[in-house]
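Teaching note: in complex prediction, the entire set of molecules is handled at once rather than each chain in isolation. The prompt given to students was simply: 'Predict the structure of this complex.' The entities are:
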Amino acid sequence: MPFKRFVEIGRVALINYGPEYGRIVVIVDVIDQTRALVDAPDMERSPINFKRLSLTDIKIDIKRVPKKKDLIKAMEAADVKNKWEKSSWGRKLIVKKRRAALNDFDRFKIMLAKIKRAGVVRQELAKLRKTAA
Amino acid sequence: MAPKQRTARVSRNPELIRGIGKYSRSAMYHKRGLWAIKAKHGGAFPRHDPVAKPAAPVEKPPKFYPADDVKKPLRNKHRPKPTKLRASITPGTVLILLAGRFKGKRVVFLKQLPSGLLLVTGPFKINGVPLRRVNQAYVIGTSTKVDISSVNVDKFDDKYFSKESQKKTK
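The expected output is the structure of the full assembly:
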């Protein structure tokens, strides 16, 4: 029941609405009740409404409004990119993106792979049924 | 004797602005060397008498003049070209057929025939689509391409697909 992910300086968040949809950013300052200043290595520091952010588990150690260099150094030290891509949330987003960018030929290959996998599963199931019976 | 190879005639008078040349009439006269040609031929520009034309055949006046002037329609010299092929469709592209007996099948594009239709094949062994003609409008071009540079499709054209005329000899 208690909250675990807090809005704090250094909290890594995902933008879930607007032109920057899908970007991973770090909260570097809180402007007021509704807005935070966010920054990422490849974008300009800008204000954003909290409603447009989804907080993640990742937190990095930075001072309030660090210089871009210091932000990048802190993100490398905490290994934010890898932690995100290995987390189950991050992996799901990557899969979603990959599925959206599929080719007709890719979808064909996936169909064949699914059929193959289902075949293997069915064989194993048949073996188990035989030993159980 | 082979005709002399003439280089394209370039003007010796560069254009400053459209309609105005750099050199005056007298400067150009000197540049073209007309004075030298005149001097070579003793003060007068050489003239050639006109070539005698063969006598034109005598045209008889017509026997019949129509009462009203009837306008003749203009000649139509329009020669149709095969339809412009979409940039996404190149020989070897995999296409998706949208209509007809084989709708939904993915086929390989071979070439565009002179009528504008696309020559397409399954290949037959793979999905049962034979060598077939298909209209570009009923096709989706995918980005998948197959290398068919070693395939010779020269012998296939629209005549190959025409119906055989039944010649019954009784």
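Point out the following to students. Residues 25-31 of chain B form the longest helix (7 residues). Residues 121 and 131 of chain B are 4 Å apart (CA to CA).
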